[in-house]
Design goal:
Layout (H helix, E strand, L loop, with lengths): L2 E6 L6 H12 L2 E4 H9 L8 H25 L4 E4 L5 H13 L3 E8 L2 H14 L10 H10 L5 H6 L1 E6 L9
Parallel strand pairs: 1-3, 1-4, 2-3, 4-5
């Protein structure tokens, strides 16, 4: 049975880069919430009150991505999901639902120092390279960073969690 890889971590931790590399190594399909969200909703993004607008749409996109992922998994191909589940309870709910449907799950939890992540996000905003989906303003970076909840003992006891440092001390995977 194909594996569901869930790539999570705070904003700027390197999730997209990591997920792309994992997809290339495994032959899996990388599915990123930000790319879907930007395509579907960015043209309608309000100038103010972005957070409530975002939250109202995120659940619909997550449901659509999971439906699509199940179709991919049915073909025997792994999925590499980058879903922005930065808070523990929604992440655990998603992971439990995946496991309840009989899929093997591995969560890859990326971590890097906040200053490095801030610099990465600023650079991504300016260069708009291959991992760019949408501009992340400094206030959204700070808010999302403050909201990030790393895995705890309960989470690590329920499913496989591979912790990955993408900071300056990180070693490139062989």
């Amino acid at each position: 049975m194909p594996i569901v890889h869930l790539i999570e971590g705070p904003v700027g931790a390197g999730k997209s880069t990591y997920a792309r590399a994992l997809a290339a190594r495994s032959g899996g399909v990388h599915i990123a919430l930000d790319a879907w969200f930007a395509t579907l909703f960015s043209p309608d993004r309000p100038a103010a009150d972005v957070l409530p607008w975002y939250v109202a749409r995120k659940e619909r996109v997550l449901a659509l991505i999971w439906t699509h992922s199940q179709a991919v998994l049915a073909t025997g191909v792994e999925v590499i999901l980058e879903l922005g589940l930065i808070q523990r309870q929604p992440r655990m709910d998603f992971c439990r639902a995946v496991q309840a449907q009989g899929f093997e799950l591995v969560m890859h939890e990326l971590e890097a120092p906040r200053e490095l992540r801030r610099a990465r996000v600023q650079q991504r905003n300016e260069q708009q390279g291959p991992t760019f989906s949408m501009v992340v303003p400094p206030e959204i970076f700070e808010l999302a960073s403050d909201l990030w909840e790393p895995t705890d003992e309960v989470e690590r006891g329920e499913y496989a969690v591979e912790r990955v440092s993408t900071g300056p001390e990180a070693v490139s995977p062989g």
